[in-house]
Write a structure and sequence with these properties.
alpha/beta, fatty-acyl-CoA synthase activity, medium-chain fatty acid-CoA ligase activity
Length: 213
């Protein structure tokens, strides 16, 4: 009986392996974009790899040649859904990088802690950190004050990003974090002594619109 079971298993594997057909090599290396558009295999391997610059920005350029945005991020919440194309994500992550470097005075090898749910702003900030070479410490909004304090002290983060739920918790331990200099709030509300990230993004978008008008 055991021999019969083994034979059936072997026969099933044999049949399934003969029914598997790998994709042609062209499908592995060539995109389905129109003639003249960029192909991902045309991109040379950079000496210094940066995901935001070498991948996200590259796909943003490819998106232009394909005649429309393609979802890089698909956000669904109680308000509905929003599809973020590669070009849009690249643009907003560059604006976030400008906020981190100019407003927060962060640079390569600095540390930043993020206590946010997985919203679009979270991805902009993470990509901005990658662009600038900033090490980010992700954290869930469920972190307690003690857990936040431990992470801030161990990382010696100079900046923290949180929403209206995490802001008062951070403030309760900030006196014990001498390296923490800047606090960014991602919320539709305002909070005392916190920089409004969304307003800073809108300000940069207004400046961009003014530049091209």
């Amino acid at each position: 009986m055991q021999w019969l079971i083994r034979f059936r298993i072997f026969r099933a594997i044999h049949k399934s392996s003969h029914g598997f057909h790998p994709a042609p090599w062209q499908l592995h290396y060539q995109s389905s974009s129109k003639a003249g558009a960029a192909r991902w295999n045309d991109h040379d391997v950079p000496e210094e790899f940066n995901f935001a610059n070498c991948v996200l920005d590259y796909w943003a350029q490819m998106e232009k040649g394909r005649g429309g945005p393609h979802p890089a991020l698909w956000e669904v919440d109680a308000k509905g859904e929003d599809k973020w194309g590669f070009e849009r994500m690249a643009c907003l992550s560059r604006k976030a990088a400008s906020i981190l470097s100019d407003t927060c005075a962060l640079s390569c090898r600095d540390w930043l802690m993020i206590i946010l749910p997985p919203t679009a702003e979270t991805y902009w900030i993470c990509l901005a950190c990658v662009r600038l070479g900033i090490t980010f410490v992700p954290g869930t909004p469920q972190l307690t004050a003690k857990e936040i304090l431990y992470r801030l002290c161990m990382s010696k983060a100079q900046c923290i990003v949180a929403n209206e739920t995490g802001a008062p918790v951070v403030d309760s331990v900030m006196s014990n974090c001498p390296t923490l200099k800047t606090k960014l709030l991602v919320s539709d509300k305002s909070y005392d002594r916190w920089l409004d990230f969304k307003e800073l993004i809108r300000d940069r978008e207004r400046k961009t619109d003014t530049t091209f008008t």
